[in-house]
Design a protein that fits this description.
The complex is a heterodimer. Chain A is an all-alpha fold. In chain A, about 85% of the residues lie in helices and about 0% in strands. Chain A is built from 8 helices and no strands. Chain A is flat, with a radius of gyration of 21 Å. The termini of chain A are far apart. In chain B, strand 1 and strand 2 form a beta hairpin. By secondary structure, chain B is of the alpha/beta class. In chain B, the strands form 2 sheets. Chain B has a 6-stranded mixed sheet with strand order 6-7-8-3-9-10, with helices on both faces. The chains are: A mainly alpha, B alpha/beta. Chains A and B meet through helix 5 and helix 6 of A and helix 2, strand 6, helix 3 and helix 5 of B.
């Protein structure tokens, strides 16, 4: 079995690397764009407007209370349907679904981050004459962002693993490469072990980096 | 500083009229009318829960009054069409818990508002901040993050941050209550300097000795109203209202 793993790695190394690249691209996109969506949605949710708050709540609740795989199916079929002229690739559809999903989780992370900032910070900024939005951008968000950085990195680790669901649609991520290679070679366990090791090394390293980051930030304060 | 400062002759700066504040069914302010004149140094004293902090925080609408009017520099800032942010720029505020921005350096804490709000250029703000920091003996700390400062240093920074906006009045909300005893003096000294330079100050405080020494006028509040007021000598030595007498007998 060990030899067969070596053979697979040498023969299909490119496939595994491609898969790794796609997986990372999907995870990075969903976290980066999800982060922006998350910040906006969190601000909407904490705003005084009932309408904006309502929209934000409905969005986060729907996303968080339905399975990711269902959401992937939904966007995979829905997006090309409503935007036929854009000729969206299935990769784009899946990326959009992941972004929307991670935006909802990010908004909860941001919301707790914003709420963790002492009210006195807002009061001090407003007493100097800053508007509500200037206070948010200059005083609250930078501090909230720093507080939620570890939680965001953990979300990145979680998303990296969740992208494996995208293989249902053959978008070329690591798990897709497993299906491709196992189909070609009729080997089941060996390619699974290889991509398992890749996932493990990837997320284990990231988790370790996150805890290092957390320690650094503690000594910074 | 003289206790015989005739505030009645000084021009009016802030006038509160029938100011009320309710938190649900709890009436914290029960219709306060009071005028603050330019150059006055006023201390607000009274038992906890008497509404003195709420009254102070209503003056710049950090706490939204339930009804009434506040004229500041001749403008009714309770008017719906008023942009309160403009007026707040002229009302400095200092808090019990300092509320320094921890992610900004000492210098950035001071220059942020004047630059962002277009009051000064970056260079002007830095020059202003340097002269203010020198005045409160914090100039060596200008590039450090405030996390390393002591409570007294943080509060001096907070005062300077408010002063950088060149306000017409300074509102102090129990500025020394959260400080270790040995740091109270250094903060009071900064406020004393301000008072000497004719800055209009309204100070909610428990430091009776300080109120007596520095203020022109003392307002005693209890249960949402101003029960008694006068110059510190009269009020502290010959209180007329039984509630004032009772309060002073407990704290002096």
């Amino acid at each position: 079995m060990f030899e067969r793993i070596i053979t697979l790695v040498t023969r299909y190394g490119g496939n595994f690397l491609n898969g790794l690249g796609t997986t990372l691209l999907l995870a990075l996109t969903s976290v980066a764009v999800g982060c922006i969506i998350g910040a906006l949605v969190a601000i909407m949710r904490l705003s005084r407007s009932k309408l904006l708050g309502g929209i934000a709540t409905v969005y986060t609740e729907i996303i968080r209370d339905t399975p990711l795989l269902l959401q992937l199916y939904f966007f995979y079929f829905m997006l090309p349907d409503i935007l036929p002229q854009m000729k969206l690739s299935k990769f784009t559809c899946i990326a959009v679904a992941l972004v929307i999903n991670s935006g909802a989780y990010m908004s909860e992370i941001f919301r707790s981050g914003i709420q963790s900032i002492d009210r006195g910070q807002t009061e001090a900024a407003r007493s100097l004459g800053l508007s509500a939005s200037q206070t948010m951008m200059q005083i609250i968000l930078p501090q909230a962002f720093k507080n939620v950085l570890p939680a965001m990195c953990n979300e990145f680790v979680a998303v990296t693993k969740e992208t494996s669901l995208a293989s249902t649609f053959y978008v070329g991520d690591l798990m897709t490469q497993y299906q491709v290679i196992s189909g070609k070679t009729y080997m089941v366990l060996e390619p699974l072990i290889i991509i398992g090791i890749i996932y493990f090394v990837l997320t284990f390293t990231m988790s370790k980096l996150v805890s290092m980051l957390e320690r650094r930030m503690k000594t910074d304060d | 500083m003289t206790e015989d400062f005739d505030y009645q002759k000084a021009p009016e700066l802030i006038r509160a009229e029938k100011l009320t504040k309710d938190f649900g069914s709890l009436k914290v302010l029960k219709g306060i009318s009071e005028t603050i004149h330019r150059g006055e140094v006023i201390s607000l004293i009274g038992p906890s829960g008497s509404g003195k902090s709420t009254f102070l925080r209503c003056l710049n609408r950090l706490e939204e009054p339930s009804s009434g009017h506040i004229w500041f520099d001749g403008v009714d800032i309770m008017d719906k069409s008023v942009n309160i942010n403009i007026h707040r720029q002229k009302m400095g505020m200092v808090f019990q818990h300092f509320n320094i921005f921890p992610h900004k350096t000492v210098m950035e804490n001071i220059t942020l508002a004047p630059v962002l709000l277009g009051k000064m250029s970056k260079d002007e703000a830095v020059a202003k901040a340097e002269s203010l920091l020198t005045r409160v003996d914090l100039i060596e700390k200008k590039d450090v993050k405030p996390g390393r400062l002591s409570g007294g240093q943080k509060q001096r920074l907070a005062i300077v941050r408010a002063l950088a906006m060149e306000p017409e009045v300074m509102l102090f909300d129990e500025p020394t209550s959260a400080l270790d005893p040995e740091m109270v003096g250094e903060v009071l000294e900064v406020i004393r300097q301000l008072a000497r330079n004719n800055m209009t100050c309204v100070i909610v405080t428990h430091e009776m000795g300080f109120a007596r020494e520095v203020c022109n006028r003392v307002l005693f509040m209890d249960e949402g109203v101003i029960c008694e007021q006068g110059n510190p000598r009269d009020l502290f030595d010959h209180p007329k209202n039984p509630r004032t007498q009772d309060f002073l007998s407990k704290v002096l």
